Amino acid sequence: MEKRSGNMATAADSVATPKKARTALRRAPAPKEEPGHEAVAGEEPTTLDVTLLAPDALECPLCSAPFEAAIFQCKNGHAACRGCCDRVRGTCPSCRAPTGAIRCRPLERAIAAMLFPCAFSAAGCERRLRISEKRAHEAAFCQHAPCACPVPGCAYAGLSLHDHIRLAHQGNGDRDAGAAVRFVREATVTLHRSMVFRVLLQVPDSRVFLLANSGNVPSGRSLSLLSLGPRPDGDGVLEFTMVVRAGGETGGALSLSAFGPVPCARRWAGPEHLPAEGFLFVPDAYWSSSGSVSVTVHVGAEVGRGAAHGRSPRNR
Question: Which residues cross the membrane (predicted)?
């Protein structure tokens, strides 16, 4: 009996117990950490390769905007952003239950922990961004987003707007709005009332500036400066000084001036869109009998002036 028992124990030891199969998650290479997104000390971030089968899964079903901040839900689980909860006056449009008081914390935490590729990743952008940062990055900061040519009738939109304008739109002198002026830090141009803009090409940085001339103001014209391209990296800010001399003479006794940050955009909205702020008003009395003024524009970059993006140009 002892021998049989020993044989049974030996047989039991020799049979391996089947182990439960483990399911491995497929992991993508860890993305580069963005400033302010450092992992908590002692924690190793887990990167999962996730495919959204429904692109609108992370959008507010009422306004179709991405969930970026607080998310609310009614008692039946219908989610909405804060703005839509206010617009529907606290009543869920799906089930008529009260909404706007219950936060959807799990969805908020899940979205806050996600990093999304830039929409221009195919063009070379390697940034991974929070959903709350994605829209601003793609609209103003991405160095790989295309910029549209402002010349009427031109359909160009690409990454080499400076070279495109220099090669495709030579212009025919000061009376041609398409005549681009190349400069390093300062440019002086003659602007006629009939011109809706003059193109300024900054040589060192290959930046394109638009000196816009709008007539949607009484008793004069409004001049503004726009950079067609992304904003400078980091905290850099483009600063300008604009001097307008009466009568189109560079040595004129009468002058107006303004200075401040240069706004950046991918596309010019057109002469009918007068900026609410950031323009220099030039009265009718400053324009010569031929309808021109001399405009000197100085552009420089300053570092560490990120807050200046919200400042308006000041008139002197």
Answer: none
For 114-141, letters b (16+ CB in 10 Å) and e give: ebbebbbeeeebebbbbbebbeebbebb
pLDDT in tens, 31-86: 444 444 444 455 666 777 777 778 788 899 999 988 888 999 999 999 999 999 99
Q: Give the C-alpha separation, 284 to 246, whole Å.
A: 10
DSSP string over 47-93: -B----SSGGGGB-TTT-PBP-S-EEE-TT--EEEHHHHHHTTTB-T
Helix/strand/coil for 122:
helix
Q: How many residues does the chain have?
A: 316
**Cβ neighbours of residue 121 under 8 Å, at least 6 residues apart?**
none
Count other C-beta atoms under 10 Å from residue 33's C-beta.
Answer: 12
Question: Do 198 and 110 touch, CB atoms closer than 8 A?
Answer: no
Which pLDDT does position 44 carry in this prediction? 65
Give the tokens for residue 34: 């963005």
Superfamily for the 48-141 domain: Zinc/RING finger domain, C3HC4 (zinc finger) (3.30.40.10)
| CA separation for the pair 12, 3 (Å, rounded) | 14
Task: Give the span between the Cα atoms of 31 and 28, in whole angstroms.
Answer: 8
Residues of the chain with CATH 3.30.40.10: 48-141
What 8-state DSSP symbol labels residue 272?
T
Q: Which 3 state secondary structure label does DSSP give 270?
A: coil
3-state secondary structure of 7: helix
CA distance 75 to 195: 59
Handedness of CA 63, 67, 71, 76 (dihedral sign): positive
